[in-house]
Amino acid sequence: MSTPIPPPSRHSLEAEVLRTRAELAAAIDELTTRLSPGYQASRIAHEAKQAASDAGAMATGAFGNKNGPAQDPRRARNAKVLIGATLGLVVLGTAVAVTAVLRRARG
Q1: Could you list the residue ranges that cross the membrane (predicted)?
Q2: Longest dimension (CA), the chain
Q3: pLDDT 10s digits, 70-95
Q4: Angle at 14 between CA 12 and CA 20, to 5 degrees
Q5: Which residues lie below 8 Å from residue 70, measured CB to CB, with a gap of 6+?
Q6: Contact status, residue 76 vs residue 69, Cβ threshold 8 Å
Q7: pTM, entire model
Q8: For every one of its 107 residues, what pLDDT tens digit does the chain have, with 9 covering 90 and above?
Q9: Cα gap 53→60, rounded to integer Å
Q10: Are 37 and 65 in contact (CB under 8 A)?
Q11: Whole-angstrom Cα distance, residue 103 to residue 100?
């Protein structure tokens, strides 16, 4: 036969309520910060700068060093996307320029 568990004391219940309120307030503060437009903009700007730096590291061969983007798959993907987008824009710009020159040449 098991021994009955005594009901919690009022003091312990009040302490648990206060602890839960504090945890909930901290969670709400963190969510508010993460969802703020300013925080999102600064995070995106930081990731874009980091991707540009990582793309430069890929171009110079420093990609695989200890602190480089090769250690973080997300950073490596962002750098590759940036390189691909840049190359795509260069190709598109070249195609537009060649088309314009050919149209002028035809008269």
Answers
A1: 81-102
A2: 102
A3: 677 888 788 888 888 989 999 999 99
A4: 100
A5: 63, 64, 76
A6: yes
A7: 0.49
A8: 578 888 889 999 999 999 999 999 999 999 999 899 998 999 899 988 888 888 887 777 765 655 555 677 888 788 888 888 989 999 999 999 999 999 998 86
A9: 11
A10: no
A11: 5
